[in-house]
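Troubleshooting log. The previous structure file for this entry was overwritten by mistake, so regenerating from the original sequence record. Sequence copied from the archived sheet and checked twice against the printout by T.R.
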Amino acid sequence: MSEYAAVVAGEALPRKRVDAVLDAVPARDRETRPDAFARAERQRRRWATQVVVVDELARRACAERGLAPPEEVSPARVLDVAGTDVADLGSIVAVALAHSPAARTLLAALEAEQRVPEDAVRDYYERNLDRCLTQDALRRGVDPYGGAVPDDFLPYERVRGDVARELRRGMGRRAFFDWLDAARADVVYAHGHEHPGDPTHPDHEHRH
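Regenerated output below.
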């Protein structure tokens, strides 16, 4: 196996950065069949490579934008990932954001750039009235779409800021995914470090 995991913008990405992530993530139970364990380990290395590639791409993007990420954190940070984040973002991006200060800085910058139209906020409020019930209405078990009265809902003016922030957060995440798809299009991976879902290697699998 080569000493580098990938080539990013013409520069080799050291394999030791992938090894640091692997050291922080528990391996699969070794009691499983040897062939299944070996396959899982090959995929785990490919998965960890993606986490490191996202970090490297984000570092470069921050430098280009003049953003200063906070100090580097321990790779052990990859263990601190909420299950809801994995469900919403996919394991690679969720772990990359937990692991990489640069990725978090870039995501925050992209989110701050988003502009949420007023009509989008109003439309979200009107389509999600079940999320805007008052505490009293919730205690009484009010059906927001049947039998509820105006006083059962928090007024639009009170929740508008929260709704706008939630929509901006979603837009920021979509912008991050768009950036990532474009940024890693030209990354060249060393043998054994391909994307876990790359159909050109025999162990490939596509899941989120």
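The first strand starts at residue 4 and ends at 8. Archived copy saved in two places this time.
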